[in-house]
Amino acid sequence: MDDARPGQRAVDIVLSSVGLVVLAPLILLGVLGVKFTSPGPVFYRAARAGRGGQTFHMLKLRTMRHALSEGPKITAPQDRRVTPFGQFLRTSKIDEMPQLFNVLKGDMSIVGPRPEDPGIVRDLYGPAEHETLRARPGLTSPGTIWYYENGEAQLDPADVMRNYETVMRHKLGLDAEYLRTATAVSDFRVMLATAAAIVKRVVSRPRPTSDASHSGR
Question: Does residue 125 sit in helix, strand or coil?
């Protein structure tokens, strides 16, 4: 298993370059939203384990209250550290769009296992999970889609790390299986499936009821 599929790096460069141009308005929206809704820096540089376990810094739009940013490395649903605008960014994945710079730089690929915190890799990864470190981490993957659609809901907000290990192993198991036979065509299908999952989540977000909207809450 290796990330050196023919032409993958060239595809990453082209797609990340085009993506940064096309998605610039959404990234700007995110930048302005973070700046005017929460004090603190706009961007967050998260230490992550990349290919071969080498640490790099993954760029994200900040979604948490700066004063409450310390805590569990994994964010559970209804995490009180996340700002309301930050929740929108997380649901729509706009907070992840700056990672196209990481793809352009070569730290990441468009499709590959999502990179984990080095501490989680050190404490929780077994031999099977370490296999995924042979590939360059990515913006999305089959495991990422599963986690977005199903895995997050399995996390206990009161003790998020208690069952994250089980969720993580399933997620990375999906990615390890995918990487064994991945092709440019299957990568494209993963990209389409990711876009569909995000649209589905954004469209299905609960709307405030009429009573709540008139109550001033």
Answer: coil
For residue 182, tell me if it sits in a domain.
yes
Residue at 192 is within a domain: yes
Tens-digit pLDDT profile for the chain (217 aa)?
A: 445 577 899 999 999 999 999 999 999 999 999 999 999 999 999 999 999 999 999 999 999 987 665 677 888 777 888 999 999 999 999 999 999 999 999 999 999 999 999 999 999 999 999 999 999 999 999 999 999 999 988 888 778 888 898 999 999 999 999 999 999 999 999 999 999 999 998 888 665 444 433 333 3
In a domain, 213, yes or no: no
In a domain? residue 214: no
Residue at token pair 């469209």: 203
pTM beyond cutoff 0.85: yes
* Total domains present in the chain: 1
For the chain, the C-alpha Rg in angstroms (whole number) is 17
**Do 133 and 121 meet the contact criterion of CB atoms below 8 Å apart?**
yes
Residue 152 belongs to domain spanning: 8-203
**Chain centroid to CA 160:** 17
Alpha-carbon distance of 179 to 210, in angstroms, equals 47
